[in-house]
């Protein structure tokens, strides 16, 4: 029903009642009860719609409660006025309504319980990490674009140019053309090198081929400090988790090689029923501060996005232990 | 696919006979076992999984036919894979970056070396081997020259080849290799391949 038909209908009812009263000899003014009925319907509709505009949740229930209470109070007061006043009986309904509305308001305004606080914090953390993940992704794409643009792309342009020159020269100066071709080969290899660096920084090849366990073993082999790797991650870890953990371990191992002065390091995979745990330990000097390094901060951001936690224990005399815990997906 | 056709052309131009060219891991394994070629050139990544299908097929074939010569090509070289390829200690193993194909002479040389039961490891792998363990292994007792010789040796080169690469006589190379073996506590041997494997085995421990 549109607003116009609704208004027309209401007006017609009121006018008809008034006309009927005029025609039937103007006794007691009963049409006021018709006005009252029409008014209750219109006003009721209005306040309920108002209340429903409040966002879903406890506040909407309170608004609905308030709307209904206001309507009941309005009806009672109107009836009292229309029936000629006298003993102010609506006081009792008004008192009841005030009690109901007051206690409801008190319940809503009370501080949230522990469970609810936990959920609110979790939502805040998720919002933060989602924003972080999006920002990081954008920055990462920008870096890849820049690397490709300045590296492989530039080299391929120069390669095309050199090949063009060689083609130009091949009949007149075979020797010069051969020199240019040799140069072109060098450029092609350099372009391949650039591409390799970029693709490895996005997603290392061993990780794609073999998964997290072997990728970490390959990392360990390449480190200047001997690293023993024990255990294996569960094979069903999602790819995003594997990548985040891989870069976390890579950063931790790089720090071992760069800062710790260690002669031995170890990576251990372990798991409980609902977490996967990766420990990177060394026998170095300790005193590592995760708040200082930018590398570790980036890693924490990455881990946040998969709900994983990073813990660094590094007393001044060593040893350093970096622990990553990842919640397992509920089965 | 692009690389395969190019390689066939290249190898046939250098008097190799190409007995089979396949495009997937299972096909590769079947052909390797059926044809028992003098040497196989294999890409690490092959269908159906596009992971390390080629490498696995090569390893499986060598488990069946010990010492079957295989030259593995890849966009990346990983020490982990080098170790797996060399693990059976039998030689006839090559592991090179695809880029190396562009140096035709070197590449054909590597194919022949692998076919003859030798090794051809990519210089990148060798460099990683040498870089990473310097601090903790007796390698730091080697002189700069000896380290150069070791790097060449690990790529599978003979003394004569090392001599010409470093512009020294074969005799001088032999002197260096003996000194390397002495410092690393290894028995010297005339066999090129055992030599490399010994060095690698030592570096892997």
UniProtKB/TrEMBL annotation, chain A:
Query: Which protein is depicted?
Result: histidine kinase
Domain Signal transduction histidine kinase subgroup 3 dimerisation and phosphoacceptor stretches: 140-206
User: EC number(s) in its UniProt entry?
Assistant: 2.7.13.3
Annotated Gene Ontology cellular component terms: membrane
Q: Which Gene3D superfamilies match?
A: 1.20.5.1930, Histidine kinase-like ATPase, C-terminal domain
For this protein, the parts annotated as crossing the membrane are: 32-48, 60-81, 87-108
Q: Which InterPro entries match?
A: HATPase_C_sf, Sensor_HK_TwoCompSys, Sig_transdc_His_kin_sub3_dim/P
* Molecular function in Gene Ontology: ATP binding; phosphorelay sensor kinase activity; protein dimerization activity
Any Pfam family the entry gives: HisKA_3
Q: Which UniProt keywords apply?
A: ATP-binding, Kinase, Membrane, Nucleotide-binding, Phosphoprotein, Transferase, Transmembrane, Transmembrane helix, Two-component regulatory system
The record's catalysed reaction(s) read: ATP + protein L-histidine = ADP + protein N-phospho-L-histidine
Q: What's the superkingdom here?
A: Bacteria
Does Phosphoprotein show up as a keyword for this record?
A: yes
């Amino acid at each position: 029903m549109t607003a116009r038909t609704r208004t027309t209908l209401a007006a017609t009812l009121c006018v008809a009642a008034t006309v009927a009263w005029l025609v039937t000899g103007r006794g007691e003014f009963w049409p006021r009860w018709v006005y009252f009925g029409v008014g209750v319907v219109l006003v009721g509709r209005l306040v309920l719609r108002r209340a429903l505009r409040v966002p879903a949740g406890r506040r909407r229930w309170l608004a609905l409660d308030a709307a209904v209470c206001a309507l009941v109070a309005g009806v009672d007061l109107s009836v009292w006025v229309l029936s000629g006043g006298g003993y102010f009986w609506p006081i009792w309904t008004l008192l009841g309504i005030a009690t109901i509305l007051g206690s409801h308001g008190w319940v809503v305004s009370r501080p949230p319980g522990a469970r609810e606080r936990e959920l609110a914090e979790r939502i805040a953390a998720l919002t933060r990490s989602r924003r972080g993940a999006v920002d990081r992704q954008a920055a990462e794409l920008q870096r890849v674009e820049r690397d490709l643009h300045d590296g492989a792309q530039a080299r391929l342009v120069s390669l095309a140019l050199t090949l063009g020159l060689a083609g130009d020269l091949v009949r007149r100066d075979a020797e010069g053309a051969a020199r240019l071709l040799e140069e072109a080969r060098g450029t092609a290899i350099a372009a391949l090198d650039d591409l390799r660096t970029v693709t490895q920084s996005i997603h290392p090849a061993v990780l794609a081929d073999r998964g997290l366990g072997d990728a970490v073993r390959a990392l360990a082999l390449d480190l200047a400090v001997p690293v023993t790797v024990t255990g294996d991650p569960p094979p069903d870890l999602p790819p995003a988790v594997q990548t985040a953990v891989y870069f976390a371990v890579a950063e931790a191992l790089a720090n071992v090689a760069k800062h710790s002065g260690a002669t031995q390091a170890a990576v251990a995979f372990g798991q409980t029923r609902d977490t996967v745990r990766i420990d990177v330990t060394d026998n170095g000097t300790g005193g590592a501060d995760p708040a200082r390094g930018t590398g570790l901060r980036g890693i924490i951001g990455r881990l946040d996005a998969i709900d994983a936690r990073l813990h660094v224990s590094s007393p001044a005399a060593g040893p350093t232990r970096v622990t990553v815990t990842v919640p397992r997906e509920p089965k | 696919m692009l690389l395969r056709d190019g390689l066939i052309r290249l190898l046939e131009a250098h008097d190799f006979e190409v007995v089979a060219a396949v495009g997937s891991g299972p096909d590769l394994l079947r052909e390797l076992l059926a044809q028992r070629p003098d040497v196989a050139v294999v890409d690490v990544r092959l269908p159906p999984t596009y992971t390390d299908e080629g490498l696995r097929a090569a390893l499986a074939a060598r488990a069946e036919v010990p010492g079957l010569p295989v030259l593995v090509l890849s966009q990346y070289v990983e020490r982990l894979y080098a170790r797996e390829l060399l693990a059976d200690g039998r030689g006839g193993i090559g592991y090179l970056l695809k880029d190396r194909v562009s140096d035709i002479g070197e590449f054909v040389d590597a194919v022949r070396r692998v076919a003859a039961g030798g090794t051809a490891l990519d210089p990148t792998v060798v460099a990683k081997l040498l870089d990473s363990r310097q601090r903790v292994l007796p390698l730091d007792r080697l002189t700069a020259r000896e380290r150069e010789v070791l790097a060449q040796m690990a790529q599978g080169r003979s003394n004569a080849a090392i001599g010409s690469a470093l512009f020294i006589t074969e005799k001088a190379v032999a002197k260096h290799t003996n000194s390397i073996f002495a410092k690393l506590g290894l028995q010297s041997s005339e066999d090129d391949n055992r030599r490399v494997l010994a060095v690698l085995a030592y570096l892997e421990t």
